[in-house]
Every structure is written in structure tokens, then in C-alpha cells.
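Worked example
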Amino acid sequence: MTRTEVQDPSQISSLNSNQIPNQNPNQGEAKAQIFDYDKWFKKASELKRSYQTDRPFPHIVMDGIVNPDLARQAAADYAAVDWQSYRHYNENKQGGNAKTLPSSVATLIGELNSPEFLKFLTELTGIENLIADPGLTSAGPHQSERGGFLNIHADFTVHPYRHEWRRRLNVLVYLNEGWQDDWGSHLELWSRDMKECQVKVAPIFNRCVVFSTDETSFHGHPEPTTCPPGVKRKSIALYYYSIDRTTVPISTEYRARPKDNSFKAVLIFIDKLALRTFHKLKSTFNIPDTFVTRIMDLLPKKRK
């Protein structure tokens, strides 16, 4: 395993190559694709119809999305990622430092940020002129341990540092081989009125979820993970934007579920207000996530 030093996060976008060396020495100089564009472009029209009509908001689930050897290597190299904690009442997870990533992780992210992959996303979703975020603001490798969670929320609507960028899509790629269904941690997609969960997606290996984001695209994995100690829920989260100077900036909108008691609902709301303040400061003064997460560590974390 080698580490890619990315002093300028924008270099991530140039790390992509649609091919990776084949590890089988019997195949000589043969190359293996990271993402099979021929295969997925042929499926794009059918997938697009499903994407646009699926409830509760446009989304699609695709299995076997990238080269499995690279996905396995990236998962193994998560041990070498420089992690920072996101621990407050509404979430308990870790995010990787985008400036220093193992080469396997950087290569995989680079492909998913490449112009070719953006063309596929446009074909799939119908959203034109998509922009990848090379700085991976709040994105990149994520992981959580036993007890990890992410309360139901709708994502921030405008990039905190590039105020003309409207957030349009999330792409999640899961890297969890052998994940057991009873460990939970399913991605939940909730109705726009927050009355019910309408879709649950298990975070199994090499599964990809693409969905549109707006003010009411509520999602998360709110039930604490019950995986064994030492097992981690691993994913890559990437966010895509388009130019739109009219979108009203809204920070991440956490919501209580109907079954949550009043005390928990109040704590979710208080934590959301604190996050809203920090998001505004972050956006105004270009404050990095590392500073914000240190402050958020001071807020209540106990779940009821």
C-alpha cells in the first residue's frame, strides 16, 4: 500500500485512470477497468426511468459498481487513512483527511470524480453540467464502528466554500464484505413529510446508491450499528454540484422520526441549531471541518 500525498486537494480529480494494473501475473500487461463504462452506459436508459420514478425521491441502487479488486484494496487501506471524528448528538462517524489518502482510495475517488463518470451520472439522472468537488468537503472516505449512526437529515443545499455551487447528487459506495443484515446500519430514505421510511438499503460490498439532494430528501442510518467490535462500516461518499446562484443556502436539516420521544427530538433540534451556526461560520470564514468537529465534540452525545 502506498499513500498519495495531496497537498492541493484539487489534485484528487487528476488521480483517476479508468484502468488499474491487473494483479494476476499470468495475464501479463492486461489492465482491469475501474468502472465499466460500456456496461453501465448500456443500462443507463433503463436505470434512468427507475431513477426518476422511484420514491420517496429520485434514487437508484446499483451492485458491482467498480472493480472489486480495487474496492477490496481500498477497504483494506482504510486502516491507513488519517481519520477525524464527527461526534455529536446527530451523528457518530469518522471522515478521512482528503489531503492525504492511500493511493487505492485516491484512485477510486478520482475515477468517481472524473469527467467520464460525470457523463454517466448525467445520463443516469438527467442533470446537466455536474461538477465534482475535488476538495471533498464533508465527503470522501467515511467509516463508523459499533454504535455508529447518522440521524435522518436533508443535506446542506450550497457548497460552504463555493457559494455558487448548488448541491445536486450524492453517490455512496459501500466497501463492506461479509456485512450481516442483522448488524443494521441500513441507509434509510424517508418520505418528504418525514412520516415514514420508504426505502432501506443494506451497506453491502460494492453497492452504490445515487440520489438527488434537495431541502426534503431525508435520509440517514439512524439506528446504531450492531456489528461486532473491530468491524467497521466503510463507505465512500461523494457529492456533486451545478452552478446556481439563486439557491438559498440551508445547512444540514436534521429531523426527529415519529417514534422518537420528545426529549430526543429536542436534543436533535438543539444540535441542529448549533450545527447551523457552525455551518454559517464555516461558510463565511472558510473554517475547516477539523475545527468545527473539535467544537462539536463538546456537545451532548448521549442517545435516548
Remarks:
- Helices lie at 37-53, 68-77, 103-112, 115-125, 262-285, 289-296.
- Confidence is low (pLDDT under 50) at residues 5-17, 21-31.
- The longest helix spans residues 262-285.
